[in-house]
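Hi there, hope your week has been kind to you so far. It would help a lot if you went through both lines with me. No rush at all, and the record is pasted right below:

***
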Amino acid sequence: MIDRLKVKNFRGFDSFDVQLQQKNSIVGINGSGKTTLLEAIYYVCLNKSFRTQNNQDLISIGETFFDISIYSKGNEYLRIFYNNELYSKKHYYVNGLKHFWKSKPNVLKALNFSSSVLHEFTNKASVRRLFLDHILSQLSQEYGTIFSEFEKIYVSKNRLLKMIRSGSDEKQLDFYNEKFIRISEKLYNERAKFVDIINCFTYNDKFFVKYIQVSNIDKLKNELKYNKQKEIILGKCLYGPQKDDYHIYFKNKNINNIASRGESKMALLFFLFRVSEYFFENLLDTVILIDDLEAELDDKNSENVYSLINSEINSQIFITSLKQNDRYSNICNILLN
């Protein structure tokens, strides 16, 4: 468990140091830095922001570096130091020892949710796939390797299709299709298996996830074999797991098109909580980060979520709110000016 967060020159925080508990509510007015603290925790866990791809955006105005540390049992656990004036700009530390990011111990996972995620999630299949792939890559290093290999093959095949369309020889296409089929089968199996596991949890029997596999492996083989010229003409890969989707149902409503915003948020929170419990069962230390928890939830659903957080969630959790929560004594309020 993270018991302390310390940041320096990170966005609007020149210096901030706070003690943490298992369940935390970050309270403050708009613009006080609530989301920034979630971002800092996410960044030190996953080496990236959920708001920007430019590290320069994260440095306080007028400064040249930022420094984020999280502590466990009183000792520094994870730390990222970034200085845009150094040749080696980013330095990563685990238990006080410097590591390269790719060689670091697999220590802490982070699951993030916000209203902007909800909007994109319910409207774009590509966002839903990315959300699922991000979760699976944290759960399994093997899946991360499979997904990375798939992306490389997918990009290479698209490049080859454009070259063939411009007059290059077709001979290499069969080779790439074979590689594409092999790696696609692994993705199909891992995604479907994970969705089946998530559906076994019992927070709410009115909630379930349906994986939409556009092509099984035999169908994919035929599509690539008989539609080769179509892919060449268009210069891109038309078939495969990059077309798959999944739907989340809440009270028998597909949240992508017929559920209300409040119902959609409840369903996605249930999904996130189930994922966190699966991580917990697999002995993976995980933090859950929920920005503006009560937005779009009525009083009843808000109470249901708080009750669930209070009694059922084993992972450490951080939420943000405009108002202090006094309903549950074991939720620690962190007040921002």
Observations:
- The mean pLDDT is 92.
- The chain has two domains: 4-108+285-335, 126-247.
